[in-house]
Amino acid sequence: MDQIKCECGHANPVGTMLCESCGRPLELEIKGEASFPDMRYEGMARRSQTYSRTIIDRIWNYFSSVKVAIGIIVIILVASAIGTVFPQQQYIPVPVPTEPDVARFYTETYGKLGTIYYTLGFHNMYSSWWYVTLLVALGTSLVICSLDRVIPLYKALSKPRVNQHKSFLKGQKFYGEAELPAETDSAALVEAASAALRKKGYRIFQNDQAMMAEKGRFSRWGPYINHIGLIIFLLGVLLRNVPGFYLDEFVWVREGQTIAIPDTPYYVKNVQYHTEYWKEEEMAQELDLKGGAVVKSYQTDAILYLNKNADLPGANPDLVEIKSGPIIVNHPMEHEGLALYQTGVQEMQLGALNFVLVDKKAGNKEIGPIKLDLYNVPAEQQVADGVKVRVLDYFPDFVMGKDGKPATQTNLPKNPMFALEVVSEADNASEKLVYLSGSIITEKDDSRYTLEIKMPDLIDISGLMVRKDKAVPLIYFGSFIFMIGVAMGFFWQHRRIWLQFHGTRVMLAGHTNKNWYGLKQEAGAMIEQAKLPIAIEDKSKA
Amino acid sequence: MDKKNRTYIRVAILGVLLAALVFAVYTSFVKDPNAVKVGKEAPNFSLEQLNGPAVTLSDFRGKGVILNFWGTWCEPCKKEMPDLQKQYEAYKDKGLVILGVNIGESPVTVEPFTKQFGITFPILMDKQSEITKLYRIVPIPSTFFIDPDGKVQEIFLGPLNEDMITQKVAKILPK
């Protein structure tokens, strides 16, 4: 038998607490008034609590439990908190190129606890398989808990019943009854009560001897709507992992340089970088900045290109201009969901070295200028008629190697060293020169040529963050739905008032999911207007 | 709703949720779907040579390719260069190609370096470090062993010596 028969003859599914048809409390032990069933789900059967025959039912029932849901939430909260104790791997402030470097960082920086943290994998917590499993479990719990409760609730509320059983009325926290004089016209009283409540915005269901008034039923859907919002939010988070949905890159672009944006078919050119400072007269009050200045804006004038030849990386790009304009902090350049943010700058970096070639044997005669672009070094250049300068070797970040030979520490021109050869075609002679750290070293003491050092070209290198997050609209939409749900549940209440005449007895009951004070006010006004001789017995503490 | 229908609906919903779980866990393991992996095809690219025309990786199908990322500032790269050169000479007639990808340096820096080491295999100039980013190079030297079908057979981080190269080359030489 999987049905319980109510005294009224209606067959209810197992687990029903209040008869679906007449509202009578069904289980014997809960017939006492003190333990009248919770009205949250209208006493409907939540089948998940009673059927667990197959494995599917068992999984379903497990996730249908609010206790399990709370457990999952607590675990996620605790885990998320632990993940903030030490920095996650991507936020380690020093380069850690290999896995042993990562391990060493945690051990050396945070000691024993750091080692444990790393060993347990907490340094990559938010993308770990178990953390995302917890998130999906939370989503599962949200879906199943909601479905299991909203369906029976919807069934119960969509059939408002005027003739609830006496015991249902008596069971309500808000209840009153009275004996009426024999000649009372009950139909007229029902009519008067209905009219009073209709004015307050209630929907009235009535017959000659009974009435049920209801308002704000939709507020009961609030929690379920906000769960839908949360599920959409979680979906958005999940979608970030779909290729093409999410991009987070960073590029350094020198002034004049056009560079490919990794993992996109786009190129960006830094036309010019500019830092603007507040002028003294623009300041609201006089500040003693001790010679310093306050930055007003960091700005890169950039051009965004689309590479039509993006299928083969490294091949000569076929660039089409998409957009050009300034990139200022908080005002990114945007194109089809791709956003370029101004996030860094290295100002006044060496771009090119300038020299003048001098002929010492001709009375220090200036022969001509030489420019050495540090990022695009010319192998050879004509200085004057018959005089060429060749670059023999170039060490962008000079250091003397352990083997006593010159070497470079990086591929960035932080300390450029050049070995040059001056070739004079006229007298078929050549001479070698070295430039290092602001000085010229000649091959021989009595060399013919030397270089006069001029002001180098200084350039700014702009750091641009490249972001794309197509899931953001979905995440905002989810949050918006969530807020609608919260507002529905918070600012409205589902209020119901039942009025029934049984011969000369009148019974009045009320129920609301919150704000009992409001319900009492409205019921009190109705009693007064319809002149009902009822004293309310208030079992609610609210 | 009868019980059978209910079971079907539950199975369907749980199925969708299970799919979401599989997807989420899968993507948490594969953090970078574009990363180069052993067993997968090496991403194709084209780069100019130090002293020669552009070459495309796919042109070397049918040959075993060692793709070595290096820079003149990297001491371990210097150390392995002579060994790479030696093995190149030993195996180039048996179908081995070595491509040395220089990371963002000027030809005037690279050329004296290759002369010093007597390098004869093609040196490719990754001026903008584009291919270095494509291959997600972090430490150098990094070396990819690519078989005649264009699939990555092994990725090695750090300097190689002669024996290691011999042993790994055996896996990628055409049969």
Automatic annotation (TrEMBL), chain A:
The chain crosses the membrane at residues 68-86, 129-151, 221-239, 474-492. Residues 66-425, 444-522 form the ResB-like domain. It is found in: Membrane. This is Cytochrome c biogenesis protein. It holds the Pfam family ResB. It comes from the Bacteria. GO terms for cellular component: membrane. One of its GO terms (biological process) is cytochrome complex assembly. It is a multi-pass membrane protein. Keywords: Cytochrome c-type biogenesis, Membrane, Transmembrane, Transmembrane helix.
